[in-house]
Every structure is written in structure tokens, then in C-alpha cells.
């Protein structure tokens, strides 16, 4: 457990994040200390130059600082940090001519540079994770609407999901509104 400037112990991420949002500098220090090994574990899996690795570490926590108030699911902070770190490593690698990233989820081209498909795949995985968290009818509807190639057939979707065709559009909008904060919480 971590201590704040007031001596309070942070038993979980929620209380730690709350203290950070209130401006407790000690809480922020504790938050970085709590997750530094996790972030470095991802960075070390790459072949970034040491100075690029340091930059990625700083970028990840700067992104966290900027996104902290929008983080809806504090219990998913570790997942958010992992995703953000992977993306930052990818960006650093693509800027650095001779430093490709060697993560399992990364596809490298023959010349050692990364394809745009890598970022697309990371984005797809984030969307899949967000849909998993969303669950229920919203997940089913959004997958039916956006997973199929071509124009989705509302009558077919309505029949398959037991929905009236006229309710699909408004339900889709509500589901997308629920999905958006989940995606933001995952670092999308």
C-alpha cells in the first residue's frame, strides 16, 4: 500500500487515482511507482534505443496524466497502461529508422519497419476488448452491424436478434454512446 502526503494509505487504484485527481503529488508519485515495472516490462520487450525507451516511459505517464479524469474503469488501469505503452513503443519504433519493435502482436515488414496494419490490429483488439466489456445486447448488435462485410441488412439483424427494424438505429446509437467511454478507458 502507498501513503499520501496526509499519511493515508492507498489500498486500491480507485483511491489512488482519486487522490491524484485532487492534486496529491505523493499520490501521483505512488501511482508511477506502482506501475513503473509494468510499463518497463513492455518497453523492454522492444528493441528501442535507451533514450527512446525513456521517452516512451515518460509519454505513457504523461498520457495517463492527461487521461486520468476520463478513466471510467479504474480497475482496468493496468490494461490501459499496457495498451498505451504498446502503442507508444510502436510509434517510437516507426520514428526511429533502425529500431523495430518485436512484440508478439507486432507485424514487421522485411525491411524492419512496421506496417500500418500493426496499428490497425492493435485498434481492432482494443475494440474487441471494449465490446467484451460492453457485453449483452449492445455487443451483439454492434458486432452484427459492423462485423459483416458490406452493408448490414437491418431486417436480417432484427430477425436474428429479435428486434424491430425501427429500433435498430436508435439502439445502435445508445450502444455506441456506452462503448465510447469504455474505449477511452482502454486508451483508444
CATH architecture label name of the largest domain: Orthogonal Bundle
> Count the strands?
2
Strand numbers in spatial order across the main sheet: 1-2
Number of domains: 2
End-to-end separation: 29 Å
Question: Could you characterize what this model shows?
Answer:
The chain has two domains: 108 residues, Orthogonal Bundle (Rna Polymerase Sigma Factor, Chain: A), CATH 1.10.1740; 74 residues, Winged helix-like DNA-binding domain superfamily/Winged helix DNA-binding domain (Arc Repressor Mutant, subunit A). It has eight helices and two strands. 67% of the residues lie in helices and 2% in strands. With 188 residues, the protein is an all-alpha fold.
Secondary-structure map with pairings?
Layout: E1 2-3, E2 9-10, H1 13-21, H2 25-44, H3 50-67, H4 77-95, H5 116-134, H6 136-147, H7 154-161, H8 165-185
Antiparallel strand pairs: 1-2
In short:
The chain has helices at residues 13-21, 25-44, 50-67, 77-95, 116-134, 136-147, 154-161, 165-185, and strands at 2-3, 9-10. With 188 residues, it is mainly alpha-helical.
Structural features:
two-stranded antiparallel ribbon, Arc Repressor Mutant, subunit A, Rna Polymerase Sigma Factor, Chain: A, mainly alpha, disordered N terminus, 8 helices, 188 residues, 2 domains, flat, 2 strands
Amino acid at each position: 500500500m502507498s501513503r499520501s502526503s496526509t499519511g493515508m494509505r492507498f489500498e486500491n487504484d480507485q483511491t489512488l487515482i482519486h487522490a491524484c485527481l485532487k492534486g496529491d503529488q505523493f499520490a501521483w508519485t505512488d501511482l508511477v511507482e506502482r506501475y513503473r515495472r509494468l510499463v518497463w516490462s513492455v518497453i523492454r520487450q522492444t528493441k528501442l534505443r535507451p533514450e527512446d525507451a525513456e521517452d516512451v516511459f515518460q509519454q505513457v505517464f504523461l498520457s495517463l496524466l492527461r487521461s486520468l479524469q476520463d478513466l471510467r474503469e479504474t480497475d482496468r488501469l493496468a490494461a490501459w497502461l499496457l495498451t498505451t505503452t504498446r502503442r507508444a513503443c510502436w510509434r517510437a519504433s516507426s520514428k526511429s529508422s533502425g529500431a523495430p519493435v518485436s512484440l508478439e502482436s507486432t507485424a514487421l515488414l522485411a525491411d524492419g519497419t512496421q506496417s500500418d496494419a500493426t496499428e490497425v490490429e492493435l485498434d481492432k483488439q482494443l475494440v474487441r476488448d471494449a465490446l467484451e466489456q460492453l457485453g449483452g445486447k449492445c455487443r451483439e448488435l454492434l458486432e452484427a452491424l459492423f462485423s459483416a462485410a458490406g452493408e448490414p441488412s437491418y431486417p436480417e439483424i432484427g430477425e436474428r436478434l429479435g428486434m424491430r427494424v425501427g429500433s435498430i438505429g436508435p439502439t445502435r446509437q445508445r450502444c455506441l454512446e456506452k462503448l465510447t467511454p469504455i474505449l477511452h478507458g482502454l486508451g483508444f
